């Protein structure tokens, strides 16, 4: 059965925590926090303290600007705060973000992420023993001596999920990770035809089974009694992704290459709200869950049997805080209806 999870929004950390608490009460199996305008670990700490039963995950934390040891320490502390409910979601980010924003070399991102995951798990396994950790690597060698963590470790097997859309990183998620996470616009057809075959190839390469990998699809979700209003709320999110030229194959897969080009042509310092006016209803309908509650529930059901878990997030791009609050309230109310408010 498809697990319903949620990505809460808050203008403050307090509001973020309140939204996570409301989503948990509505029956969300997990709450996920991103990393762009806030630190993912700090947001996860706020959410973990506000909840008690739902899993708490980063979707995603940037893997490369932090050392694997720092990431591993943050994850151990977050898992302690969450009482064993933490999921470490990691992503490579794009080249420009790493090189220009964080001054991180972009060479061999697949190797870099593979070695990062290896090092994190090795640190978790050995950090309390005092034994040396000595790992070779092209991107992330790790040599630790004279270190022993004096605090207890709740779990040495915290789940690690990897965000990926390209084939190489998606195969890596299938090979070594406990889960895979998509970006916010992944349709059931794209998931079935482009993503799952790569995950399954990675699973085979790693000698694993499909049950070893949680497939988490993310969806921008906008619910309103007026379906046209619901669509327009989501248009800014679609416009944001459409400006990324490396997603050309993704939009072409959905027959939206010309629609994407119109957004790109309009993109010259335009805000998300301005870009929304250049996003067609066809793009919104194909790539988001937008409409009345019944329409959105029907579209969520289309992921059942394809993904294991769906992460619903309210639209945010180009919207005021007041508009996002309305959208968030509607999504959480729909989760409660679909789950019966199970938690």
TrEMBL record:
All copies of domain Luciferase-like, residue ranges: 11-304
Q: GO MF annotations for this entry?
A: oxidoreductase activity, acting on paired donors, with incorporation or reduction of molecular oxygen
One Pfam match, by short name?
Bac_luciferase
What protein name applies here?
A: LLM class flavin-dependent oxidoreductase
Per the record, the domain of life is Bacteria
Q: What is the lineage of its organism?
A: Bacteria, Bacillati, Actinomycetota, Actinomycetes, Propionibacteriales
Coiled-coil spans are: none
Name the source organism. Nocardioides agri
Recorded hits in InterPro entries, A to Z, give: F420-G6PD/mer, Luciferase-like_dom, Luciferase-like_sf
| Gene3D superfamilies recorded | Luciferase-like domain
